[in-house]
Specification:
This protein folds into 3 domains: 3-140, no CATH class; 143-243, Nitrogenase molybdenum iron protein domain (Rossmann fold); 266-458, no CATH class. 53% of the residues lie in helices and 11% in strands. The protein has helices at residues 13-40, 49-69, 80-105, 113-137, 153-161, 176-180, 194-200, 219-227, 235-243, 253-258, 266-286, 288-301, 352-360, 368-373, 386-395, 412-416, 423-439, 442-458, and strands at 3-6, 9-12, 144-150, 166-173, 205-209, 232-233, 309-315, 321-327, 377-379, 408-410. The longest helix has 28 residues, at 13-40.
């Protein structure tokens, strides 16, 4: 993808053109909203052509700046159409606040609330449809062209994860072993300066892929690429941005110390807690009939002989234990010997009613009480049993890092990785939990909640 340089920064031309097009869409939405408002009240527009044209331009600029502020014009936008729709809604809210502030400061350019509301609705529909069309017809606009330099350590991991927003242009091998590998993308010989290879292949970024770097990396050539406006990425930074995970294979303490993130502001925590209280209380009241039916079904299946709920110790924030309550989905003798076991696929201990409750996530509804009490949150890592936490914390030194935040009913790992029932699965989920702990934000929580609806409705990831 060709880039243009604006104020000293390289921007991808397709994304610049997309910003201009969406700015025009917002301006036309304002044009339509204004005419609709005054047509409905039977009055003429109180602006001259020049003033109205200036207002359209101002609205377009304000809303495009708002869309840029939430990352809608970044090539690394990974969340797809769902994430784009959330970002568009957030940008339109920010743009509306900006226009309200401008109207307050400049009363001559007053924008009626009804006009602004119409503009937001029209702009949201049209820009979302535009993005949908682009994702279907021209997805390369949101894809990065990557040139890999080094060995195959990153390549194998990258191909296993199957990133959708990525085009691997080729591999420039720096070891004999890497040169002998065959992939679906070409191996490019290092017979010219790296900057020439990169520009000829029209790459957006260079990804380093070599573990033993002592004298192996052509630092001067990489510096030349960086100075020419081509970003050079480390594997951990790349996987974090591209795949939403912190890869344990490449993780080291120095990266954790230097990396940005791992910060939760007071306002973010306050908003999260207020949302947890309001949402858990509301959802609890709404699902009382469902929970009563679930309790009745469990009781009938067991002929009213056994309890419908079970309580179990789980580990919460900062390693503090708490009791979680769920609908019982297994036989009462599931762990008769007292030994903790992972639940497995088609686990014979799961009852027929329990299988349905697990698939629909109804078995987790009683945990809303833990959210209200502040022991859990709506969004966070899955709360695990102390037996598993203790074992995995000893086995892997970074496992305890997931305890820095409250556990949640749903989370990034639950969405990105299928239901796990082994220690290896737990460590793979840890990669996503570390990403969440490092990059926790209100937007990420909102994105997880929206995608959880898909999980609940279609049973994605449920066992």
């Amino acid at each position: 993808m060709h880039s243009v340089r604006i104020f000293g920064h390289f921007l991808r031309l397709p994304l610049v053109l997309l910003a201009l097009l969406e700015g025009l869409i917002v301006a036309l939405s304002f044009f339509g909203g204004t005419h609709l408002r005054f047509w409905l009240i039977g009055s003429s527009i109180p602006f001259g052509p020049g003033e109205f044209g200036f207002l359209m331009l101002l609205v377009g600029i304000v809303f495009v700046v708002a869309m840029a502020s939430v990352g809608l014009y970044e090539a690394s936008l990974r969340e797809g159409l769902t994430g784009s729709a959330i970002r568009i809604a957030l940008a339109l809210l920010i743009g509306s606040i900006g226009m309200a502030a401008i109207s307050f400061a400049l009363p001559h350019f007053d924008v009626w609330r009804s006009v602004l509301a119409s503009t937001v609705v029209i702009a949201f529909i049209t820009t979302t449809l535009l993005r949908l069309g682009l994702y279907r017809l021209e997805p390369s606009i949101f894809q990065r062209r990557i040139l890999i330099i080094g060995d195959t350590s990153v390549v194998d991991t990258l191909l296993a994860e199957k990133s959708r927003g990525l085009i691997i242009v080729g591999l420039v091998p720096l070891t004999e072993q890497a040169a002998q590998h065959e992939y679906e993308f070409p191996t490019l010989p290092h017979n010219a300066p790296l900057v020439h290879i990169a520009t000829t292949a029209d790459v957006n970024e260079i990804l380093l892929s070599i573990k033993d770097r002592r004298g192996a990396l052509p630092m001067e050539e990489l510096l030349d690429c960086r100075m020419s406006g081509i970003p050079v990425l480390e594997p951990l930074d790349f996987f974090e941005r591209e795949l939403g995970m912190v890869k344990l294979d490449f993780l080291n303490p120095s990266w954790l110390v230097r990396a940005s993130g791992f910060h939760q502001g007071y306002m973010t925590l306050l908003l999260k807690r207020l949302f947890d209280i309001a949402a858990s209380a509301g959802l609890f009241l709404l699902t009382i009939p469902i929970m009563l039916l679930a309790a009745l079904a469990i009781a009938v299946e067991d002929r009213f002989k056994h309890p419908v709920l079970y309580r179990q110790i789980r580990i919460g924030r900062d390693g503090n234990p708490f009791k979680v309550t769920k609908f019982r989905s297994m036989r009462v003798d599931a762990e008769a010997d007292g030994k903790a076991r992972w639940a497995t696929k088609n686990d014979p201990r799961i009852t027929r009613v329990g299988a349905f409750l697990r698939k629909t996530r109804i078995d987790e509804l009683p945990q809303l009480v833990s959210v209200l009490k502040g022991e859990m949150s709506f969004v966070g890592p899955r709360p695990e049993r102390p037996e598993f936490v203790g074992h995995l914390a000893v086995k892997h030194p970074y496992y305890a890092a997931r305890l820095r935040v409250k556990p949640g009913l749903t989370g990034w790992a639950q969405l990105r990785y299928p239901y796990g029932n082994t220690e290896d699965d737990a460590l793979r989920k840890l990669e996503y939990d570390l990403y969440y702990v490092k990059n926790h934000s209100t937007f990420l929580d909102l994105l997880i909640l929206v995608q959880t609806v898909e999980v609940v409705l279609f049973g994605k990831g449920a066992m």
